[in-house]
Amino acid sequence: MSRVCELTGKRAMVGNNVSHAMNKTKRKFSVNLVKKRFYIPEEDRWVTLRVSTAALKTINKNGIAAVLKQAKANGFVK
């Protein structure tokens, strides 16, 4: 399973490790994902999502219903 946030679509980025001698080697910046259960009162059910911690902060601020609606508009949730 790829490390992609199910609500925001965030995925790993590629960059460089840079040494003191300015040698560059490729590396990957992984997304900080957590598996979390959310209760959706409109549908009266629980859903389990793998979301980034940034998305968790957005859910805490705006609510799960608003974030799911925005994710559907952006095409991340069916």
UniProtKB/TrEMBL annotation:
Q: Which domain of life is it from?
A: Bacteria
Keyword annotations for this protein, in alphabetical order, are: Ribonucleoprotein, Ribosomal protein
- What GO molecular function terms would the record report? structural constituent of ribosome
Q: Which cellular component terms (GO) are annotated to the entry?
A: ribonucleoprotein complex; ribosome
Q: Return the InterPro entries for the record.
A: Ribosomal_bL28, Ribosomal_bL28/bL31-like_sf, Ribosomal_bL28_bact-type, Ribosomal_bL28_sf
Pfam families, A to Z: Ribosomal_L28
Q: Where is the secretion signal located?
A: none
Which biological process terms from the Gene Ontology are attached to this UniProt entry? translation
Q: Which family does it belong to?
A: Belongs to the bacterial ribosomal protein bL28 family.
| NCBIfam families membership | L28
Q: What is this protein called?
A: Large ribosomal subunit protein bL28
Q: What is the lineage of its organism?
A: Bacteria, Pseudomonadati, Bacteroidota, Flavobacteriia, Flavobacteriales
